From TrEMBL:
This is Calreticulin. It holds the Pfam family Calreticulin. Residues 303-329 have a biased composition (Basic and acidic residues). Residues 159-204, 295-373 are annotated as: Disordered. GO terms for biological process: ERAD pathway; protein folding. One of its GO terms (molecular function) is unfolded protein binding. Disulfide bonds join C80-C112. It comes from Dissostichus eleginoides.
């Protein structure tokens, strides 16, 4: 397992209405990364597990919101790898953290191939991990994206369908019905195919050898298909039957289902096939407005310049590739021209050799005639 580092960072900011329990932007040159580069925590080796964590003062989110946010940039054109964080209780042994370590919350993007591009939101409740039912898609581009999870201290009431309820037998949920007064026209039934009137029996047709001649069949222009009565509004239509719901007998209200005691560690525990992902702007707070302000100050201030710079880089790269392709085509044309010139020279040499050979033969013939005379 590749361990990026274990560092204890406590950054608590107290104010009248908010408390920041943890914040890390990698601006101070601490153990997380090199201050000279100042661009976040980056994975550096392909096909590796990564594990790192930071501890802060334990707290509970009872009766207050819990906001977890951070930025992720897949600079490497990611094909398969996680980009999520985990929030752990205070009893986590950071040096022994692994994939099976019990956590409170898992949140963030996960990408693998074309099928998996989603944001994980998993909560631990009574020792079991529960993934939310709604699937949230994530981006797989090379830009920085901010991920924010807000957990509010409210509850929802669960209902289930009444297992005893059944749709009444006389319930008519057909919006349209056949018109009983509509009748099929007498001239409706026509064959789908008819003999080709222009077909002629070949002159060499032999009944004994070829059998009885029959003209080819062609589509019948008068064919109307299967007749169906026209549809009218159903006078007995009652609408779609809705399965009634009852209180779930197995549901037990838990006013503390959202609450996590002794929140104390934020960690990365993930696998990446291709490294290069950059994590930054980690924040855990209980104030939604404060988190929004920090988002605007950090990612909000850099996203458009980054997008513009990325576009310029892509344009430059595309231009260089076009010029390279053009150069290769030019070189190819020059090579073809040289090959053609060489072929012409070879043909000239061959012609010259043939002429010299012919002249030599003529000289020999002339000498032979002189000898005979």
């Amino acid at each position: 397992m590749q361990v990026l580092g274990v560092v204890a960072v406590i950054l608590a900011v107290y104010c009248a209405h908010a408390k920041i329990y943890f914040r890390e932007e990698f601006l101070d040159g601490d153990e997380w990364r090199n201050a000279e580069k100042d661009k976040g925590l980056q994975t550096s080796q392909d096909a590796r597990f990564y594990a790192t964590s930071a501890r802060f003062e334990p707290f509970s989110n009872e009766d207050k919101p819990l906001v977890i946010q951070f930025t992720v940039k897949h600079e490497q054109k990611i094909d398969c790898g996680g980009g999520y964080v985990k929030v752990f209780p205070s009893d986590l042994e950071q040096t022994e953290m692994h994939g099976d370590s019990s956590y409170y919350i898992m949140f963030g993007p996960d990408i693998c191939g074309y099928s998996t591009k989603k944001v994980h939101v998993i909560f631990n409740y009574k020792g079991k991990n529960h993934l939310i039912k709604k699937e949230i898609k994530c981006k797989d581009d090379e830009l920085t994206h901010m991920y924010t999870l807000i957990l509010n201290p409210d509850q929802t009431y669960e209902k289930i369908k009444d297992p005893e309820a059944k749709k009444p037998e006389d319930w008519d949920d057909r919006a349209k019905v056949d018109d009983a007064e509509d009748a099929k026209p007498e001239e409706w039934d026509k064959p789908e195919n008819v003999p080709d009137p222009d077909a002629k029996k070949p002159e060499d047709w032999d009944v004994d050898m070829d059998g009885e001649w029959e003209p080819a069949m062609i589509p019948n222009q008068d064919y109307k298909g299967e007749w169906k009565p026209k549809q009218i509004d159903n006078p007995d239509y009652k609408g779609a039957w809705v399965h009634p719901e009852i209180d779930n007998p197995e549901y037990s209200a838990d006013s503390n289902i959202y609450k996590f005691d002794k929140i104390s560690v934020l960690g990365l525990d993930l696998w990446q096939v291709k490294s290069g992902t950059i994590f930054d702007n980690f924040l855990i707070t209980d104030d939604v407005k404060e988190a929004e302000d920090i988002t605007n100050e950090t990612w909000g201030a850099t996203k458009e310049p980054e997008r513009k710079m990325k576009q310029e880089q892509d344009d430059l790269k595309r231009k260089e590739e076009e010029e390279k392709t053009k150069e290769q085509e030019t070189e190819g044309d020059e090579e073809d021209a040289e090959d053609e010139e060489d072929e012409d020279l070879d043909e000239e040499e061959d012609t010259k050799d043939e002429m010299e050979e012919a002249l030599s033969e003529m000289d020999e013939e002339e000498a032979k005639l002189k000898d005979e005379l």
